[in-house]
């Protein structure tokens, strides 16, 4: 089996995921996943597709990710890995779909409006 390439996105983060059969090493921008994210919560998010499909340690994953913050990047990587696993084996879709791992989260930051402080917040109103 050759390398599978998929893209995952979340907010402004874009992750290019390359998966191939191997020992389970996950490399993000040339660094190990634990070193890159630091927190166990984000490492769990990245590993979630493997846990649900019971393929922990079965595939080597190389990721190039840019844009956004670390949470958006982790969720973009998770989507990319989920899509790659579905291409490797179509039966994995049944395990991933109920947990929402194949859905692109379309929520983005609302833009700032002119004459306001932020997207929704206004400047203080003074009657007199």
TrEMBL record:
Do you know which Pfam families this protein is assigned to?
Ribosomal_S9
Respond yes or no to whether keyword Ribonucleoprotein is given for this record.
yes
Q: Which PROSITE patterns match?
A: RIBOSOMAL_S9
UniProt-annotated stretches for the region Disordered: 105-128
Q: List the molecular function annotations (GO) for this entry.
A: RNA binding; structural constituent of ribosome
Do you know which InterPro entries this protein is assigned to?
Ribosomal_Su5_D2-typ_SF (IPR020568), Ribosomal_uS9 (IPR000754), Ribosomal_uS9_bac/plastid (IPR023035), Ribosomal_uS9_CS (IPR020574), Ribsml_uS5_D2-typ_fold_subgr (IPR014721)
Could you name the Gene Ontology cellular component terms for this entry? cytosolic small ribosomal subunit
Q: What are the Basic residues biased-composition ranges?
A: 114-128
Q: Which GO terms describe its biological process?
A: translation
Q: Does the keyword Iron apply?
A: no
Q: Per its UniProt record, what SUPFAM superfamilies does this chain match?
A: Ribosomal protein S5 domain 2-like (SSF54211)
Q: Report keywords, A-Z.
A: Ribonucleoprotein, Ribosomal protein
Q: Which domain of life is it from?
A: Bacteria
Q: Which family does it belong to?
A: Belongs to the universal ribosomal protein uS9 family.
Q: Which HAMAP family match?
A: Ribosomal_uS9_B
Protein name as it appears in the record: Small ribosomal subunit protein uS9
Supply the source organism for this entry: Bergeyella zoohelcum ATCC 43767
